[in-house]
Amino acid sequence: MAGMGDTMEGQGMITREECAALDAADPLAAFRGEFALPPGVIYLDGNSLGALPVRTPERVRAVVEREWGRELIRSWNDAGWFEQPYRLGRRIAPLVGAAPQELVVCDTTSVNLFKVLAAALRLRPGRSAVLGDRAAFPTDLYIAEGVTGLVPGARSVLIDPAELDAHLDGDVAAVVLSHVDYRTGELLDMPGITARVRAAGALMIWDVCHSVGALPVELSASGADFAVGCTYKYLNGGPGSPAFLYVAERHLAAGPSQPLSGWFGHARPFAFEPGYQPRDGIGRFLTSSPSLLGQAALEAALDVWERADRDAVRAKSLALTDLFIGLVEDLDGVEVVTPREHARRGSQVALRHADGYPVVRALIARGVIGDFRAPDLMRFGFTPLYLSHTEVWDAARHLARVLDSGEWKDERFSRRGEVT
């Protein structure tokens, strides 16, 4: 890193002034005002928890004070609480390339994965194997292990996705993969992989937690069978906001069953019958009463997304990640792990550094918030709706100074805590 002033090596010696010019021409720049970002903070962790939309507190307050506080139980009908899982599902559907009737908002990613994976096994009787990426986010592995443990003869097989074809035999019932690798930011080929899995007679389940809201996702066009995703990362639904699940229309028509047969998924929930009869359509994947406060926060966040152009978001994401990679790739001790090819990159950049943990903590002390994944990955998420080119330039400069000065060696940064 040369100069430490207003010019940095990489990206053709780009200057901060040139980054400011890019920001001035940014078609998404106005969205920055839609988020309550603390001053003096460069937030590069939206791939873990998105920023707070400014209209969210007002929407949640309305649910608490008016719909719950004054209208009380009447709001199940008058405020549309019963229909909220479907209504939100219809709003998210365009973001993942799904038809409105193929998606519903409910429960958590883990619970939804349990439901769709169990449904997939039931749709493929006689097949017992579930393939998953051994380096996937742990909940995907744990849920697959739990589901297969409940089905006699079923087994969870962990593989490297690059070796998928070698494992696609007649015993594979389903494959579960993350569209974007949570550690490295690598983007997988959804259409190509899905086609190969389905050609082998298996069902394809995608985890789109790290891609929805960051890049265009095309579940229906890719032929996906099932998908799950969260709303608290790039969609900015808030901590613990409800997740969603997708089921292809062709499977809904066949009436798939899932094991969490709660009353909200019953065809006649207010008949209070002892036997279970599932609803038609995507409603059969509901289980219990929705979390209305969490769904209210998500509703406010989706107000923003319905005004954002997905292609513009993707173009800016690639521009920001290109910029950051170019600015940090020559730093001492740093290895860029995220693929350089646009077709293989999500919206984060992962850097390998032997002392990544204290380096990330030193950056956070400077107001540059990223995160760390053991054993040596520093992760930086790039959220196009509220991140600018100048902030990316400044973040790279802070990283250079942390490394060059050795301030990360301060013992307060090496004490282990959680960097989420």
UniProtKB/TrEMBL annotation:
Keyword Transmembrane: no
Pathways involved: Amino-acid degradation; L-kynurenine degradation; L-alanine and anthranilate from L-kynurenine: step 1/1; Cofactor biosynthesis; NAD(+) biosynthesis; quinolinate from L-kynurenine: step 2/3
Modification type N6-(pyridoxal phosphate)lysine: residues: 233
Recorded superkingdom: Bacteria
Positions of pyridoxal 5'-phosphate binding: 109-110, 137-140, 207, 210, 232, 263
Enzyme Commission (EC) number: 3.7.1.3
EC class (word): hydrolase
Keywords from the UniProt entry: Hydrolase, Pyridine nucleotide biosynthesis, Pyridoxal phosphate
Cofactor(s) the protein needs: pyridoxal 5'-phosphate
Family matches, as InterPro entries: Kynureninase (IPR010111), PyrdxlP-dep_Trfase (IPR015424), PyrdxlP-dep_Trfase_major (IPR015421), PyrdxlP-dep_Trfase_small (IPR015422)
Keyword flag Magnesium: no
Subunit structure: Homodimer.
Protein name per its UniProtKB record: Kynureninase
Organism: Kitasatospora putterlickiae
Annotated gene: kynU
